[in-house]
Amino acid sequence: MDKIALVIGSSGITGSNLVEKLISYGWETYGLARKPNTDNSKLKPISADLLDIESLKLALQEVKPTHVYITTWMRNETEKENIKVNGQMVRNILDVLSEKGSVVHVALVTGLKHYLGPFEAYAKAGFLPETPLREEHPRLDLENFYYAQEDEVYAAAERDGFTWSIHRPHTVIGKVIGNAMNMGTTLAVYASICKEEGRPFVWPGSAAQWNGLSDVTDARLLAEHLIWASITDVARNEAFNVVNGDVFRWSRLWNRLAAFFDIEAVGYGNQIKPLEKEMANDVDTWRKIAEKYKLKETDLSRVATAWHTDLDLGRPIEVMTDMTKSRKLGFLVYQDTEETFFELFEELRNARLIP
């Protein structure tokens, strides 16, 4: 069977890495985004607005994908609005593709907010799940746009007869610019500012995160997992956690990250020190650094998302993710987390995104 992939959100941290992996495996690959990434000459870019169904129909007129990967979302002021907008985005793309009858599998990327709650009630006491997080954990009795996205996939699958997979990564680490959830690049930018200004690299999160065990997801491993689930019979119609496969403590990793940049690390003291506050006055600082070192991006907001890094690192519990389900079904890819960060930092330097 021909493998024709349509990656929704192809310019994002997950989508861009998935595009590279699909193309390396010889897939015919289309990438849909408002502003498609055209760095890879083999990608077939599609510009469209997921909230404008006529725009989608026109853009996809000649495209008949076999595999659809939904890797994007849009943040709104309230969870009620998140549900409305993000549910509609998934519904629109699947409705447009329904008429073609070409789709055999749809993969949706969500995340650990499935277990920890939406932005408005993220990781609050009263409903914190048992860790390691497992796929069988029931939905929380809270509004959550991840649930709305899943339900749109389930309904379309029943209507059109395609198979599906849901992928729940922890914090995704990878190279991308302008992404709303981008801890790896955010920490690299913060460390670069600390280096230039002689400031200490201050841990911004909670005591539980500093002392507890954690894990993350390399964007390249997530891409492998998405492809695996979409072409492996036993993995279809299942939801999966996706992480690197190792665990770490930030109390060690923070010092290792600081050593990479040759700066002073400061660990947890007696209170959370949000990175958003720490970097609040660094817009001009970053612009000067970017101009001094001739970097490609002078806009701090395009390379650092401190608010989301604070959300992850400020959680009141340690968070580990169980991968047993994927392992039993044959997904054995593993990634060392320290190497994930160090390889990202080198990639950012080579791309002239940090000094």
Automatic annotation (TrEMBL):
Q: Which InterPro entries match?
A: NAD(P)-bd_dom_sf, PRISE-like_Rossmann-fold
> What is the protein name given in its UniProt record?
NAD-dependent dehydratase
Instruction: Please name the CDD domains in this protein's record.
Output: 5beta-POR_like_SDR_a
**Cross-referenced Pfam families, in alphabetical order?**
PRISE (PF22917)
What residue stretches are annotated with the PRISE-like Rossmann-fold domain? 64-355
